[in-house]
Amino acid sequence: MAHSAELIIYDLDGVITDTAEFHFLAWKQLAEELDITFDRRFNERLKGISRMDSLELILALGGSKTALSMEKKLELAARKNGYYLELIEEISPGHILPGIKTLLDDNKQAGVKIALGSASKNAPHILDMLELSDYFDYIVDAAQVQKGKPDPETFTNAADALGVAYENCIGVEDAAAGVDAINSAGMFSVAVGDQSHLGHAHYRVDDTKDLMFENMIQCFQDWRKI
C-alpha cells in the first residue's frame, strides 16, 4: 500500500477503556465524607483538570470547607487517589470499550505497530487488567514525558522509540487537547466523540464501535496524497 501507516498510537482513557467512572465514584466517596453533595453533572467540570484543582472545586461546592490548610487538602487528594486505585482493581476485559478489541486485532494482523499514548502512570497496570498488554509494541513512559497534552511529546515519544517518521503515524484520541497534540506532531489525527469539540481532527467518529481499521487507513492514505 502506498503511504501506508507504520504506527498507530492510542490514547487509553476514553478510547480503549473509560476510567472516568472510577474517578467519579472516588470523588463522590470523598465528597460524601465531607458532607458535600456531588453529582454527575458537577463531575463534568472536573474532566481534564488536575487532582488539586478538582478538589478545590469540590470544596468550594461545599462552601464552608475552603478554609482548610494545604496539608489537609493534600491529605484529602491522596485519600481520593487511594479510592481510585482501589476501584481500578475491579477493571477487567469487560471494561474494554465497544469495537476496540476487533480494531486492535485488525491492527496487529495488518502488521502495523501499536503504541499507547497515555501519560498516566497507571496505564501499564490497566492494560494488564484489560488483558491487552500483548498488543502493544510500546507504552509511553509517563516519567519520560516532560509536557502533557496538548504538547505533542506523548506521541512523538512513541514514534521516536519505535523509529517511525511522524508523518507515518496515526494518533487516536477522544479529547481536544489530544487531537491538538497529534496535529502538532504532524501525524494523522483520529478522534472519537462530538464534532463540536473534535472537528479539528483529520478523521472523526461518534463512538468507538464506529472505529474501523480499514476506514482509518484509507483516510490516512487520502491525507498523505494531499
What is the CATH superfamily of the largest domain?
Answer: HAD superfamily/HAD-like
Distinct helical segment count: 10
Low-confidence segments: none
Number of strands: 6
Distance between the termini: 16 Å
Secondary-structure element string:
EHHHHHEHEHEHEHEH
| Share of residues in strands | 5-15%
Query: What coarse outline follows from CA principal-axis ratios?
Result: elongated
Number of domains: 2
What value does the average pLDDT take? 92
Give your account of this protein's structure:
- This protein has helices at 20-33, 40-43, 51-62, 70-87, 100-109, 123-130, 153-162, 176-184, 195-198, 213-225, and strands spanning 7-10, 113-116, 138-139, 169-173, 188-192, 203-205.
- The model has no long low-confidence stretch (mean pLDDT 92).
- Strands 3-2-1-4-5-6 form a 6-stranded parallel sheet, sandwiched between helices.
- It folds into 2 domains: 7-17 and 96-225, HAD superfamily/HAD-like (Rossmann fold); 20-90, DNA polymerase, domain 1.
- Helix content is 45%, strand content 10%.
- It is built from 10 helices and 6 strands.
